[in-house]
């Protein structure tokens, strides 16, 4: 339009030019907006009303070099629902070392029903060992349910996004804590516990500056039923008080899970739509 006005003055030139441009097939093709794809629903195991670590993802990070020159790896267990983490150190990437780490995890966090992992040889070896067990006899005699092990398709790391992101968080925190210093196994174990505590205390939802708002949801809230560790003397608590306390705890857990579904899962869907629109 600027070039045309150097020689001509066209009445309602802007409208006329826009009309011509809109009729141009090539211009419309390059100016067209990309089709917006509707975000896929969240995986079923990510939205279950499950216990912490009932649905678990596992991965290895490392190696880390100790002061004596030996190497260790970090085994990361993460809850697919509440995003809690549990970290263990292993001295090798073998099946035997991972089974020991898995045993410690189950002893401290409970037995998962489903485990997700990639196709690492240690994970495949553990799954093969579990498959060889007589689970019918185990379930009938020990009341222990078989763990469902789900592995990602080969060469598809994006399938494990919900644990890969936490592996990155663990690495970033360790870099900030240790820098270039060389530590022994005991010092590194302490650092790993501190990293685990920091990650489990991170807010899952938006933190506002309003003092009247509820505290933000964190993984640690779902990992513990109460903040105090003391247990009352049984002779000081009657049956009615125990029943009342139990009902109060059930109501609190139900309210926390309702908040989790509204605030955190709703936020995940919103983030997915924003990424699709970019």
TrEMBL record:
Residues 37-227 form the Integrase catalytic domain. It comes from the Eukaryota. GO terms for biological process: DNA integration. GO terms for molecular function: nucleic acid binding. PANTHER family: GAG-LIKE PROTEIN, PHD-TYPE DOMAIN-CONTAINING PROTEIN. This is Pro-Pol polyprotein. It comes from Folsomia candida (Springtail).
């Amino acid at each position: 339009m600027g070039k045309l006005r150097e020689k001509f003055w066209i009445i309602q030139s802007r409208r006329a030019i826009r009309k011509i441009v809109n009729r141009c097939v090539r211009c419309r093709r390059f100016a067209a907006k990309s089709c917006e794809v509707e975000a896929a629903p969240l995986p079923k195991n990510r939205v279950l009303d499950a216990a912490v670590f009932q649905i678990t993802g596992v991965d290895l990070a490392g190696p880390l070099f100790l002061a004596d020159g030996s190497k260790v790896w970090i085994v990361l267990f993460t809850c697919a629902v509440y995003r809690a983490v549990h970290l263990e150190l292993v001295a090798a990437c073998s099946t035997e070392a991972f089974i020991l780490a898995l045993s410690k995890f189950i002893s401290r966090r409970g037995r998962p029903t489903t485990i997700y992992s990639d196709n690492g040889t240690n994970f495949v070896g553990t799954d093969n060992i579990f498959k060889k067990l007589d689970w019918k006899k185990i379930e009938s005699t020990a009341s222990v349910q078989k763990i469902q092990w789900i592995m990602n398709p080969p060469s598809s790391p994006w399938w494990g996004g919900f644990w890969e992101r936490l592996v990155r968080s663990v690495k970033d925190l360790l870099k900030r804590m240790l820098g270039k210093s060389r530590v022994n196994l005991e010092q590194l174990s302490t650092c790993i516990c501190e990293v685990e505590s920091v990650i489990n205390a991170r807010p899952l939802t938006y933190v506002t500056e309003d003092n009247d708002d509820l505290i933000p949801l964190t993984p640690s809230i779902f990992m513990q039923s109460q903040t105090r560790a003391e247990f009352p003397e049984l002779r000081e608590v009657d049956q009615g008080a125990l029943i009342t306390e139990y009902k109060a705890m059930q109501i609190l857990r139900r309210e926390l899970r309702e908040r989790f579904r509204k605030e955190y899962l709703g936020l995940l869907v919103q983030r997915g739509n924003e990424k699709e629109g970019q």
